[in-house]
Design goal:
It is a single chain. By secondary structure, the protein is of the alpha+beta class. About 30% of the residues lie in helices and about 30% in strands. It has helices spanning about 25-35, 60-75, 105, 125-140, 155-160, 190-195, 210, and strands spanning about 10-15, 20, 80-90, 90-100, 110-115, 145-150, 165-175, 180-190, 200-205. A nine-stranded mixed sheet has the order 7-8-6-5-4-3-2-1-9, with helices on both faces. A hairpin with a 4-residue loop joins strand 1 and strand 2. The radius of gyration is 16 Å and the shape is globular. The model has no long low-confidence stretch (mean pLDDT about 95).
Length: about 220
């Protein structure tokens, strides 16, 4: 898809450690070998059902791509999803999504991410979250961000806690058909402001808010 017809594909969020690039088909192709090798097969399983990343190959890659393509086209004032490829230099190592939930009325967002196993334990999870929160609060004027993680997904829960999110109850969900407790987190704009960073840059914002019906 030409980036001039869909401005979110030209959007970038840069930090001193990494960059988030709008997920063009060219960048998604760079991630295909990682998806093929598997990013959700390690226990404890990180994703809730249904999740294409749990499928066997080649269905996994096909459903993963189809879900992103559908997401580009499913843009409404009350719901939208932006997909970013996480770049370390010239290397694609994962994805970071930002999802607007009732954004037109409540200005709330949530996020979803994954990293290649080779990129774990480098502090990238926190850096990715900081980047996407900067886009949400500074770029789009969000009022609140939510996050969810299974109780035994320690890295994700630590990231939320370290960034000022507050516990917001729990819920049940299934992963690979088995029930498990999902921790819920909530970050208000005022709490984000306390630790907002000055070294994160938004590039290519022109036209993005118009596409997402953000006023």
């Amino acid at each position: 898809m030409p980036t001039d017809l869909y401005p979110p594909l030209s959007l970038k969020v840069t930090t001193p450690k990494l960059e988030l690039h709008g997920a063009t088909d060219e960048l998604l192709a760079q991630l295909l070998p990682i998806v093929r090798d598997g990013v959700g097969a390690q226990q404890p399983y990180p994703f809730d059902d249904p999740m294409s990343l749990y499928e066997d190959n080649p269905v996994r890659e096909r459903k993963w791509l189809q879900s992103i393509w559908r997401g580009r086209g499913n843009v409404r004032p009350d719901f939208w999803r932006l997909y970013f490829v996480v770049m370390l230099g010239e290397q694609a190592v994962g994805m970071q999504d930002l999802i607007g939930v009732d954004f037109d009325t409540c200005r709330t967002v949530t996020s979803f991410s994954w990293l290649a196993p080779s990129a774990w334990q480098q502090g990238l999870g926190r850096e990715m979250r900081a980047a996407i929160l900067h886009l949400a609060f500074e770029g789009f004027g969000a009022a609140e961000a939510a996050s969810e993680a299974f109780f035994d997904n320690l890295p994700s829960n630590r990231v939320s806690e370290s960034m000022g999110y507050q516990p917001n109850g729990s819920n049940w969900a299934t992963r690979r058909g088995e029930p498990a407790v999902l921790n819920r987190w909530r970050l208000k704009r005022d709490d984000w402001e306390l630790s907002r960073r000055s070294d994160i840059e938004l590039i290519g914002m022109n036209g993005v808010k118009d596409v997402l019906h953000i006023k």
